[in-house]
């Protein structure tokens, strides 16, 4: 490896690194505004100037490739003077409004001016003023503060794939804006707020509500989709003020989707804070004892085979297990967690995982989407596909039309016959596929929902296995799960009797159940007909609307819990706040219910419940790690039917009860619908 | 110079006419298919030429679709260069250079004349709709400072009197000849007819 001298210390670096990266390796910190690891190099802020031997002028370290034998100094007088000069220019037009700026306390410019700022201004002209720009309901702009680092422009173009932000005008009159001040149409737009080194782009919903140093920070994970992005929950007292991304190279890098970031105002609205019981066709506030007694009376009256339970999309592993135990106690096994009838074979763990792992997307050399719309089903995962497309020029194909995915792809067919052709090696696509060394097939829930969903899945799996593409080294089989609770529920064997068991759905359609226990479940579509519905959940949403008894419980920010993401990583979601009003943590509600029902505890302590959960997880390696590989079992035969592959559209901003309660999400949705209606894309 | 204002009144559609389209096709041939967006500047110029010397938003959209570019990228280019006009200009479009050499030689006086004769603010079209003026950066004729450009021609070595004369000729729709207004031939020294005994070009 080549060597470089930084401040008299010789270190080795990888070729291709810039001087700035090499300096960081040597432990010399370099101030910067425009440079960002995950974006292309712009070199326009000039803050990272360092001194190089044999160069009379200081050099911009972020844009200079490091070469063998360079002698870099970062702490000389010349460097300090140069940086001070740059800082003075940056501050010449930057307003001194830190006390009223939301970025205050976490502002790069503020921090760096502490070291390189001059205490007096020599700039006696008028400061420039730039009018505010509209960028949608999520981003608040104060463009006078902008220092033109162009991080947001590069993010929108490179990572988000929606080239909508740009710099118009030039020189002193340069302004950053979206085209004709249109709102930014990306599910990743919130990340420009984190990227902005000053207070030019700040969060609109969070505006003027707290200062960073007075917030309690809890490291947690996101459960609003199945990706399991790592987040930091910032709370002030009980309220969740904001949600920020946390670095995890394996999952979300440092981005999170807008739904993850901005649904948090839904945590404060529409909350169920006390038990409710339906009296005279009206839900009335009641006490825990009363509500529980109503339920138990009903449970005692009903035959156990007529009791059913449905697990919602945001339920943790612990709660799922407690719910299963509770149903075992009742003697019923009418449990399901699916919102739609999609085929799942729970025998092998790989049958419901994204086996290539999110990191694996970057290593792949061909991607085939089968009936999925990753942009809306797993936004962060889609950002990785785009990264692979952009950096490695990975070719992408699709069966079914998923709409705009922020990258180019080729539709090779739109019916299940196409898939059959591929399996029988009769399709043109096979020629491309056979050359690929590390192909990826991503099967969406929409494909599994088809009548031939079983055929598509089993045959594709068999096809890949025959091609030796399912092995410990590389597993090309991927299922794109949409809900955070799904993988966990499958591991805990919520459905295990029959492989393709839609009995639950058939029974519910024929109104065979007398009691339906909805555990935080709002997305199950069925016609209510005389069932007694118990809803346990946090929000007054679709489930609570039809309920006869409502038991209040906590949301994901208010209780500890394990979640398994779509890759099979078990991650811990941590308690950042407290359940609202009289609400209890979900497992405690079930414990309480058992206590009244059978006069005993379901679990004596949360840790015991937790230990049992970890024991039950299939192929469990350790927390935050991918599961172990196991050879797949034998293939199951399924019927084939030729039908068109239709990808069910997802109401992205309204996909779960928390987002539906959020005002910000509904604003985003309105704007999106408006664009769709006009059909003109500005 | 300040940020260009986009005209509030915009035509709904824009399309290259046949003549422009032919030129556009010729221009496209200069670039490989994958780099066709390099043609954005000549295209914007063509659009401006076709549309009475200004570029409507519809043209920006048309060009970005033509070259498969994002709207904002074409918009960036159009706002960057002072040669692209985003709102209507007069039939006679005067660009007064106010960069340092011209400024030292009295460009502000010319600006003053323009304000008095045409419109008191730049980029405003004169009452009779014939003429508009704007300030621009260096037009590369510093030897003949101060100067201004009217449509495609340079008017050099100006002073208040000559500028007023030129503007008056515009209003009579009989534009005076371009060139030096102090009797210089191109960039030759004043009152010197020969250099090294030879007449210069």
Outline the structure in words.
The complex is a heterodimer of chains A (682) and B (201). In chain A, 29% of the residues lie in helices and 17% in strands. Chain A has 22 helices and 26 strands. In chain A, the strands form seven sheets. Chain A has a seven-stranded mixed β-sheet with strand order 14-13-24-23-22-15-16, covered by helices on one side. Chain A has a five-stranded mixed β-sheet with strand order 2-1-5-3-4, with helices on both faces. Chain A has a five-stranded parallel β-sheet with strand order 19-18-17-20-21. With 201 residues, chain B is α/β, with parallel strands linked by helices. In chain B, helix 7 (160-171) links the parallel strand 4 (153-156) and strand 5. In chain B, helix 3 (57-66) packs across helix 4 (71-80). The longest helix of chain B is centred in the C-terminal third of the chain and has 12 residues, at 160-171. The two termini of chain B are 36 Å apart. The chains are: A alpha/beta (682), B alpha/beta (201). The interface between A and B is medium-sized, with 16 and 13 residues.
List keywords for this structure.
heterodimer; A: 682 residues; alpha/beta; seven-stranded mixed sheet; five-stranded mixed sheet; 29% helix; globular; B: 201 residues; two-stranded antiparallel ribbon; 7 helices; 7 strands; 35% helix
Largest interface: A-B, 16 and 13 residues
Helix share, percent of chain A: 25-40%
Q: What is the gyration radius of chain B calculated from CA atoms?
A: 19 Å
Oligomeric state: heterodimer
Structural class of chain A: alpha/beta
Measured by DSSP, the beta-strand proportion of chain B falls in 5-15%
Order of helices and strands of chain B: HHHHEHHEEEHEEE
